[in-house]
Amino acid sequence: MDLQAISKNIQTSAKVVGTTWPLYAFVTSNPLSGYESLPFKEACFRVFTKTGSIAYPEVSFFKHMMEQDFLSEKQVQDILNEHDFQGEVKDFLSALNTFQNNSQLNPNHEVDQILVKWLSVFLDEGLADWQMPDKKQGFYQAWKSLAKYDQNLAFPKGEKLPKSSLDAIHQLTAHLSEAEQLQCFENHFAALPGWVGYIKYRKDNQTDWQENFPLELEDYLAVRLLITKFLGSEVKANVKPSQSQQQLLNILQQCLAEVENHWQKHMLQKLNLKGQTQDKTAKPDAQLVFCIDTRSELIRRNIESKGNYETYGYAGFFGIAMDYEAAFTGLTRKSCPPILSSAFKVTEQNTSAHTQSFQDLETKHKKSEFKGYFLKRMKNILPSAFGFVEGAGLAYAYQLLYRTFGKPKKNKNSASNSVESICETQMHKVSDQSHLSVDEQTQIVKSAFDLTGWKTFAPLIVFAGHGSHTANNPFASSLDCGACAASPGRHNARMIAKLANSKEVRLALKEKHGILVPEDTLFLGAEHNTTTDEIELFDAEAPEEFKDQIRLLKKDLAKAQISATSERLGQEDSVNQAYKKSTDWSETRPEWGLAKNAGFIIGDRNLTKDSNLDGQCFLHSYDWEKDKDGSALNAILNGPMVVTQWINNHYYFSTVDNNMYGSGSKITHNIVGKFGVVQGNGGDLKSGLPLQSVKLTDEENYHQPQRLSVFIHAPKSRLNSLISDNEKIKELLDNQWIHLLVIDPERENQVEKYVGHSAWESITKTKYAEAVMA
Question: What sign has the CA pseudo-torsion 479, 482, 486, 492?
């Protein structure tokens, strides 16, 4: 087999591993994305054969579902009888418990241990003061020059290693057939999916670290094969499930489906399917657009109850596929979904009115940056490490006590001496650095109106991005905006508000698209802090005539914060408790993030306004009557729905097997190279959520794992057309990675469920027909 064929097999085999995103841009994604071309059931089976991981919920989940009447004992018994299980429900639960607790021993532990040591030092992104030599030559060449000094390898004396990584792989696998080679590669990649996933991330995103210190999949594989050879180890073979284990896997799949069916019934009972419309004779005092994030459901409901307010749901990057360059540092981060290429770059421009404030803020930042650098150097370099620790002990003791017992600082929710108040955002194209034309700016704003089904314009319209403020939390970015590639959405919100306030854009909206934005309407950017439910308005440049309206809105937003945090935390003095969680350096659960996500509702607010959805649903505004050609719905299916499916599966797999797909307990985490964590002193790079993000205790789930159920208020004929025209969407639906239910407004909101391959099943004819009859 030639080297080109080997290279192709490497790329094919690597599909068994998902992407591992770094801590500073922790994107939730499906860890089994490489298997999405297979049915969900088949993908879980394939994973079991590769890793021994049972990708279904634990016994405690099914017990809880039976206690909550989401799964009856009779249903389980019927499933057992259907699969010829010899025994009752209690026998099944006992057998399942034994099956799930018999973890597979790792025969490649020593290989993994040595390889992880080399990967850690090569991939370091500035945490270590002493760097691995020859990194610029790439991982294989750097390792090759040092391998003979590794006393754990028993490196043969006089051994001459192959010239390149592909040459090494060719020599070590020449005796294998193509099928055997593919299986060999897959098993080596599956042995350390976290590290391999991070290698894929570096390559796919062309990071500066990858450009300067390249590590290719063939480098990883060659080094691993050589270590395996030197240790005399064997490649871990595929796990072959016994007949009883296969039986249990089939039963688990069906039990999960029954739980999901019942949850869909439960959710349909909460929705307004009677077709009654809201009274929209009174113009709202303000309209607020929030991210579709499940955490927005709570704050939207509480804001609407505080006054004449209307809220919308829209993906939190607000239709601006951009990179954001931070002021002072020059660091650039993606601020749009990973599935999109960034078309624009946004920077901060100092305005002449705030020159002195800008210079003061820049000086403050430089001092803070130097302080951080100085302290790091003093702690890490050998000559001063011990003396520094001894000398600085009292200062650190004070800091520790203050951060543990000190009173948390609150944001005053007003314009302050910050980047947002003294800088103006500037946007240009990534392709040629040119500024956007008026037509291009107009299209961004129009798309927001189209996708949300906008009808009227209030005097104040707020685009609220969101972010999470926590302390001492390596996983902080996992709590920020999923639609913004784990970045806060504040910069996108500021940018779209600026475009919508432009006189030229408003004129183009009117003359070219028939959209009249009143002159007395002001757009504002904002940020919703999901840890404290505080909403900060970026109103420093607001005209004087809007000050009273803004002041009233802020008062009502403060009231909404009180009721929202009270509902979420269930404690007295809930606002202060929320702030304490955001600043407590020892808090393992500053907030629950997107835990409990299970559904995605695409439709008018009338469907959900009067319902408490308990933070279980993503909410995207959509008006089917204004979307005549289906283009808006098509954009939602291919963008937000795909992203929510990633989030849902990330939480699902992090819950069902937290050691394999999550990251275990935060208590024993160690940060590696600034980009990831491992458990204890080594092992695989963790790619998923920590145990504390999905579980109440080691045994009891907070997130109830199930596949995403999508409810769409639109004609079924429109959905049929869109599904048939979108191969990727059809694949996700046919393979049951997503459940789809349509609420057809042209047929009195009759509900039908997509059952695969263009077929639908009427809910009114199924065993949970009462859902639409209530």
Answer: negative
Contact (CB, 8 A) for 73 and 93: no
Residues in contact with 320: Cβ distance below 8 Å, sequence separation at least 6, in sequence order: 335, 336, 344, 346, 427, 444, 492, 495, 496
**One-character DSSP codes across 278-325:** P---SPPSEEEEE-S-THHHHHHHHHHTTSSEEEEE--TTTT--EEEE
Beta strand 344-350 pairing with 423-429: antiparallel
For residue 52, what are its two tokens?
């021994």
Tokens of 325: 């360059």
Nearest to 244 by CA among 46, 90, 83: 83
Tokens describing residue 264: 């869909």
| Ranges of H-type helices in 53-106 | 59-67, 73-82, 89-101
For residues 673 and 120, is the Cβ–Cβ distance under 8 A?
yes
Q: Can you read off the two tokens belonging to residue 260? A: 């999901």
Written in H, E and C, the secondary structure of 230-254 is HHCCCCCCCCCCCHHHHHHHHHHHH
Q: How are beta strands 332-334 and 534-538 bridged, if at all?
A: unpaired
Instruction: Give first-to-last CA distance, the chain, whole Å.
Output: 65
Q: Give Cα 330 to chain centroid, integer Å.
A: 25
CA distance 535 to 465: 9
Phi–psi pair at 711, nearest 5 degrees: -110, 125
Q: Which helix (H) or strand (E) holds 167?
A: helix 165-173
d(CA 289, CA 461): 8
Pair of tokens at residue 448: 């927001």
Angle at 604 between CA 603 and CA 605, to 5 degrees: 120
Query: In this structure, what DSSP letter does residue 701 have?
Result: B
Map tokens 């009274």 to a residue.
279
**Burial 291-300, CB ≥16 within 10 A → b, else e:** bbbbbbbbbb
SS (H, E, C) 665-678: CHHHEEEECCCEEE
Give the Cβ contact number of residue 471 at 10 Å: 15
CA distance 167 to 233: 21
Average pLDDT, the chain: 90
Spell out the residues 6+ positions from residue 660 whose beta carbon is closer than 8 angstroms to its own. Answer: 51, 53, 653
- When pLDDT is cut at 50, 70 and 90, the band that residue 282 belongs to is confident
Rg (CA), the chain: 27
Residue 767 clears pLDDT 70, i.e. is over it: no
Task: Count CB neighbours of 747 within 10 A.
Answer: 14
What 3-state class would DSSP assign to 256?
A: helix
Nearest-angstrom CA–CA distance, 729 and 234: 40
Residue 598 has a pLDDT of 98
Greatest C-alpha distance within the chain:
87
- In this predicted structure, what is the pLDDT of residue 205? 86
Phi, psi of 2 (to 5 degrees): -80, 170
Q: Can you tell me the distance from the alpha carbon of 414 to that of 393, in angstroms, rounded to the nearest whole number?
A: 37
* CB count in 10 Å sphere of residue 154: 10
Digit-coded pLDDT (tens) for 674-699: 899 999 888 999 999 999 999 998 88
381-432: per-residue pLDDT in tens? Answer: 555 556 666 666 666 666 666 666 666 665 544 444 577 777 888 999 999 9
